[in-house]
Design goal:
Blueprint: H1 17-37, E1 47-48, E2 62-66, E3 72-74, H2 86-99, E4 105-109, H3 115-127, E5 133-135, E6 138-139
Parallel strand pairs: 1-6, 2-4, 4-5
Antiparallel strand pairs: 2-3
Helix pairs in contact: 2-3
């Protein structure tokens, strides 16, 4: 005698627990990697008492960093880069300014860098065609303001 086949009741809902597990793993990965994306070159910035500069979101600023050894780095690329020569920086910034002439330009120099190297960074930006150049500093904490 044949046994009747038992029909299993079909599940009418989707199990979302595996999807939640994957989403939590992705959240942890993004939380760990997000701070690494914005750090770039390690520079000990000088302090200044100035208001932050607001840049429109459609214009990402171009930052020329000068480390404590006087090496130049530029953020017009992906990842941490090797030091750039003045000619290479002029070429790369010229390309950026050719596409977007109103790109904001900033110099981010370590406080231990001699003034002459900072001026050299400004000259490189001007040779590339930059019109307005700003400086990036840390907020003023306890430095006395000269009178």
């Amino acid at each position: 005698m044949a046994t009747p086949l038992q029909k299993r009741k079909l599940m009418g809902e989707i199990n979302v627990v595996p999807m939640i597990d994957i989403m939590l793993v992705l959240l942890v990965v993004f939380m760990i990697t997000a701070p690494l994306l914005t750090q770039g070159i390690e520079v000990d910035l000088p302090k200044a008492d100035a208001k932050p500069i607001e840049t429109p979101p459609e214009h990402d600023p171009l930052v020329l960093s000068v480390d404590a050894d006087g090496n130049f780095y530029i953020n017009a690329g992906s990842g941490k880069e090797d030091p750039q020569t003045g000619a290479e920086i002029v070429r790369r910034i010229g390309i950026v300014l050719g596409e977007k002439p109103d790109t904001p330009m900033f110099v981010k120099a370590d406080r231990a860098v001699p003034y002459g190297n900072v001026v050299g960074a400004m000259v490189v930006l001007q040779q590339a065609g930059a019109q307005n150049i700003g400086f990036i500093t840390d907020p003023l904490d306890s430095y006395p303001i000269p009178e």
